[in-house]
Design a protein that fits this description.
mainly alpha, two-stranded antiparallel ribbon, two-stranded antiparallel sheet, 24 helices, Branched-chain amino acid transport system permease protein, ABC_transp_permease, cell membrane, transmembrane helix
Length: about 600
């Protein structure tokens, strides 16, 4: 590790402050939305991407000067924010409190895919609209773009302060953030306030996207996810709903990242952000700029999932479906069998997540990390240690159960939005550790030449062999989960989900039972990841990404939270049906997002009903 010189430290400090200003516009928008709607908006980074591409298009096709470019971004992104609130979230008023959060995830998928379809996934260079000279200061340098970003950040903060402090609508926003029920009783139009806040927050997010494109001279549709995460990290540092705190948290995050790059290199940049996120959630969940250190109350009792009568499938019908699935290889169609293999592997993941999210009530947005742990465990043991695949796969399940539970255990004390944010951060940490721990995981190179599936001398590397193995394992995991749900353990899990306070008063230890749920879920997910690794023969840190976690969540909502058969059905439908319309392959993520939105709006209990 080479220590930078004094001039380099000045440049890193300037870079940290500049990036912190960009994060501030993201985080302030998130803080405003959380303040009035009690919602963490996971679509915020997608609006940031929209702003970046609107700015690029205005400069490239219209030749607009910078002030006009910024105005175009503000108008378009403001309208997008209004649309998100009016069409995506307002119809969910009165729904379960988790529904708007899930809706923002669906909206993010839709916006990202629309941008990609319009502009293509290829990166774009944003033309520079400011001079490129640098002023030497104290051994370092500072440029006009640095000053511009700092000036826009300060101007935005000043305008926002004036709006909230001196305008009637700003007073209404503050009153709604303090007590929405009381504000409504005093005649405040809550819908108007929400619409205004989403417009302002989206405009700020769009400006930050444009500035990032100018600063790094590159934009792409995939940068929305990272932007959302960075905004959330800054928000957590400053405190949910705390606008000044969001600005302070953004500057801390920007400087932490910049100094981290100076000391350890670029590949560690995001790792610092997510480690900081988890540390804040554990030790200062209210943020650094709040007077309290305890977790704010966020009751979720009776509001987690939609009540419904689950659809019961007779045992003879279940047996018939298993027999029909077992006869599928007789069709002698490798393409259909491969779709079946993918459906079965996703079915294992969906079973794991429906146990955690549906039965225990812990929404996990980082569940793909369990697949990564399982895949790397089995792959490394088979490649580097020379162990038989028949041994490495169950060991991968056990290791994933233990390590996954250990990683998420500190988050068990959290509730509501905090659980989703924590699991998302943990998932990203796992991916970044895999990327940077090259001595163990082979780093960015990934694992190549993973041995094919083989059990006790029988080659299962063919699509037929893999299908049989996956079907047997899925049936066994489903039977185990059904047995657990009908036991005292299952009743305890549901008690924690429905009312954790009441469950604790009856002696049900929440942390212990949550750990058991994550352990059983992690075992199934680890096996799925292991089989996937041996089937692909190559995996890297991007194989099991965050989109996979969202897809798994869509599957379990489609089937019905907590419903074992529903999880398998949801996985089969979302994996098999798009293959029937292969011409629509490029629209797959868009379809997933729309399905998630429609389910939350019209069928939150899923096709099979919640259990």
């Amino acid at each position: 590790m080479n220590m930078p010189g004094l001039g380099a430290w000045f440049d890193y400090t300037v870079n940290g402050i500049v990036i912190g200003n960009i994060y501030a516009m993201l985080a302030v928008g998130l803080a405003l939305i959380y303040g009035v709607a009690n919602l963490v908006n996971f679509a915020h980074g997608s609006v940031y991407v929209v702003g970046a591409y609107v700015g690029w298009a205005a400069i490239t096709y219209l030749g607009t000067p910078l002030p006009v470019t910024i105005l175009c971004v503000v108008v378009v992104c403001g309208l997008v924010g209004v649309g998100i609130e009016r069409l995506g979230l307002r119809p969910l008023h009165g729904s379960s409190r988790i529904a708007p959060l899930l809706a923002t995830i669906g909206i993010a998928l839709v916006l990202d895919q629309v941008v990609q379809l319009i502009f293509s996934p290829d990166p774009r260079a944003v033309p520079m609209q400011v001079p490129e000279w640098r002023i030497p200061i104290g051994g370092g340098t500072i440029g006009p773009l640095d000053l511009l970003i700092g000036g826009i950040g300060l101007a935005s903060a000043a305008v926002l302060y004036g709006f909230l402090r001196f305008t009637k609508l700003g007073w209404a926003v503050r009153a709604t953030a303090q007590d929405s029920d009381a504000a409504q009783q005093m005649g405040v139009d809550i819908n108007k306030v929400n619409m205004a806040v989403f417009a302002i927050a989206s405009a700020l997010s769009g400006i930050s996207g444009l500035l990032v494109g100018m600063y790094y001279n590159q934009i792409n549709p995939a940068m929305s996810f990272e932007a959302t995460l960075k905004g959330i990290v800054a928000l957590i540092i400053g405190g949910l709903g705390n606008v000044p705190g969001a600005i302070g948290g953004s500057l801390i995050l920007g400087l932490t990242e910049s100094y981290g790059i100076a000391l350890f290199g670029t590949s560690y940049r995001n790792l610092f952000a997510f480690v900081l996120l988890i540390a804040m959630l554990l030790w200062r969940p209210n943020g650094l700029f709040s007077g309290r250190s305890s977790l704010p109350p966020e009751p979720m009792t009776g509001t987690f999932i939609a009540r419904s009568r689950p659809f019961r499938i007779p045992p003879w019908a279940v047996a018939g479906l298993i027999v029909a699935a077992a006869l599928l290889p007789l069709l002698n169609n490798p393409y259909v069998l491969q779709i079946g293999v993918n459906s079965l592997l996703y079915g294992m993941l969906a079973l794991s997540l429906t146990l955690v999210a549906g039965t225990v009530g812990q929404i996990s947005l980082g569940h793909a990390a369990l697949l990564a742990i399982g895949g790397y465990t089995s792959g490394l043991l088979a490649m580097d240690a020379g162990w038989p695949v028949a041994v490495t796969i169950p060991i991968a399940g056990i290791v994933t159960a233990g390590l996954g539970t250990l990683l998420v255990f500190p988050a068990f004390r959290l509730t509501g939005h905090y659980v989703s944010i924590a699991t998302l951060g943990i998932g990203e940490i796992v991916s970044l550790v895999i990327l940077n721990w090259s001595g163990l995981t082979h780093g960015a190179i990934g694992l190549g030449g993973i041995p094919p599936l083989e059990v006790f001398g029988y080659d299962l590397g063919s699509v037929e062999g893999t299908y049989w193995l996956c079907l047997v394992i899925l049936v066994l995991l489903a039977l185990l989960q059904l047995r657990l749900l009908s036991s005292h353990l299952g009743r305890s899990w549901r008690a924690i989900r429905d009312d954790s306070v009441a469950a604790r008063s009856y002696g049900v230890s929440g942390n212990r039972y949550k750990a058991l749920a994550f352990g059983f879920g992690g075992f199934g997910a680890g096996i799925s990841g292991a089989i996937t690794a041996h089937s692909y023969s190559y995996i890297n840190h991007e194989t099991f990404n965050a989109t996979l976690s969202v897809l798994a969540l869509t599957m379990v909502i489609l089937g019905g939270l907590g419903n074992v058969m529903g999880a398998v059905l949801g996985a089969t439908l979302l994996i098999a049906l798009p293959e029937a319309f292969r011409g629509l392959a490029e629209y797959r993520i868009l379809i997933y997002g729309l399905v998630l939105l429609l389910l939350i709006r019209f069928r939150p209990q899923g096709l099979m009903g919640t259990v």
